[in-house]
Every structure is written in structure tokens, then in C-alpha cells.
Amino acid sequence: MALDLDRVREIAERVAASSGLEVVEVEFRGSGNARMLRVFLDKLGLDKSGAAGGDPLAGVTHGDCADFSREFGTILDVEDAMPGSYTLEVSSPGLDRKLTKAAEFARFVGSRMKVTTRNPVNNNRYFEGRLESFREGRLMLDLSVASKKSRKKMGAAALDEGQKIGIEFANVEKANLVPEI
Questions:
Q1: Residue 79: what are its φ and ψ, rounded to 5°?
Q2: What DSSP state is assigned to residue 66?
Q3: How many CA atoms lie within 13 A of 139 on its CB side?
């Protein structure tokens, strides 16, 4: 029986949804006895009543990961969705999480992030700033909060544009949150 990663992801999403979690990413690596299935979870931004509007930055806990792992692993085994032996690793996406979906950008408005574009914007492909808004498929970054190291990478051209820059979502190659502690 071959591995059906879409089926595994569907099971993961079903289990996560029952606990108020969302699946950020599912990846399968290795072969033979060194196969690893990784699931990255995040907590939905819900308030105490279960309605949207809670803390959008609320993180997944160790207990959330343990509970998910137990339930998900059992279902995978019962449904025989993972043939052979494997190691299951469940974790949060981390403070510097990768952003890939439009909904993630909308959720993290107000957060600092690093963005690499596919095509240059103002002769640059690398930006760091605070996401001021995400509307109609366009990110608006405030570059004035960038670190000194990032300012050097971005160059004067990016910073001369009034400290803000608009980037089309379709042009985003890579984006990560920048932890603020």
C-alpha cells in the first residue's frame, strides 16, 4: 500500500478541528526504518466561547501536541493510512513560522515579518517590516521597524520610498514571522 499524503492530511485536519487546532503543514521524510511524518499545528484565534476574535497569536501547547499525537496516531493505525513503521512528530510552527496562505497574512496583520519576493520590487527582493495591512491580495509593509542587518540587505532604494512598501501576494516567494520578545 502506497502512502496517500492527501488522505493523511485530511485525517490530521479532522482531528485538529475537533480540538480547535489547525494543520499548518504535513510533511513526510525518509525511507525504510527512518521514515518520519511531521505535523505542524497552530491554535485558531478563538475566544472562550469558540467564536473568532480571540488572541491571533495564541500558541499551541505541549498538551495540545500530545493530545493530537495520541488521537491522530491511533486513527492512522486503525485506518491503516500509514503503511509500515514511521515516527510521528507533532509540533507548533514556531515563533518564526512560515506564512504561505492568504488567511495567514490576514491573521498576522500587525506582526513583524521577513518577505522574499519572486520578482524585485523597487530593485529589491528582500524586505523586513511590520505588516500594516493585507487587502485585495496586497501586503503593506512598514519598513521602519527593520533590523540594522535587514536595512543593509534592503538597501537605500527600499527605505527611500517613505518607509512603506506594497507587495502583491502572488509575488511572495517566502515569508516568515520575526519574533518580538
A1: -85, 0
A2: H
A3: 35
34 within domain boundaries? yes
69-105 tens-digit pLDDT: 999 999 999 988 888 888 999 999 888 999 988 988 9
Domain endpoint, select from 91, 115, 143? 91
Question: Domain check: are 36 and 114 in the same one?
Answer: no
Domain containing residue 150: 102-177
**How confident is the model over 138-170, as pLDDT tens digits?**
999 998 887 777 777 776 555 555 688 999 999
79: exposed, middle or buried (C-beta count within 10 Å: 0-12, 13-18, 19+)?
exposed
Q: C-alpha distances in angstroms, 125 versus 46, 139, 174?
A: 34, 14, 10
Determine the angle formed by the axes of helices 62-78 and 5-17, rounding to 10 degrees.
Answer: 130
Residue 97 maps to a domain: no
Tell whether 74 and 149 lie within a shared domain: no
13 - beta bridge partners?
none
12 CB-contact burial (10 Å; exposed 0-12 / middle 13-18 / buried 19+): buried
What are the cell numbers at 134? Answer: 493585507
Interatomic CA distance for residues 70 and 89, integer angstroms: 11
Cell for 18? 475537533
Kindly state the cell numbers that stand for 22.
Answer: 489547525
Does the pTM of the predicted model rise above 0.85?
Answer: no
Place of cell 502512502: 3
Q: Helix, strand, or coil here: 9?
A: helix
